[in-house]
Amino acid sequence: MSSPPRSAPPRVDAAERGATRIADRVVAKIAAQAAREALTTPGTPPHATVTVHHDIARVRVSLELDYPSDLAAQCAAVRRQVALRIEEYASMSVPEVDIDIEHLHSTRSRTATGRDRRLR
């Protein structure tokens, strides 16, 4: 004896199916990777914290940069790249990206081993 054929489930409109929520920590990882992409010199990986409210992400990125260099240009590049990647990957708007420069590495104080001394 065979079972009766199954009928297809009723079609539900996309707006009624629910929503996808992307965790703040996932958006923070996207932001940190984007900041790493924007920086031209390798170093300590950037750290990002994000607060998401609906489809708006507020981002804070902590960086360590070489000095002397054009700090404003580097920060602007990080802001652009972070906003672009979050909009692209998470479909969220990013009205602001705050940058904290945690540490400046002096290019003159680097030692032969590639390590640096803290600026005082």
Number of helices: 2
Per the principal axes of the C-alpha atoms, what is the gross shape? elongated
Tell me roughly what share of residues is in helical segments: 25-40%
- The largest sheet has its strands arranged as 1-2-3
Major pleated sheet: 3 strands, mixed
Distance between the termini: 86 Å
Could you give the count of β-strands? 3
What would you say this structure looks like, in words?
This protein is α+β, with helices and mostly antiparallel strands and 120 residues long. Helix content is 29%, strand content 28%. It has two helices and three strands. It has helices at residues 24-38, 71-90; strands at residues 47-53, 56-67, 93-106. A three-stranded mixed sheet has the order 1-2-3. Helix 1 packs across helix 2. The longest helix is centred in the C-terminal third of the chain and has 20 residues, at 71-90. 25% of the residues are buried. The model has no long low-confidence stretch (mean pLDDT 86).
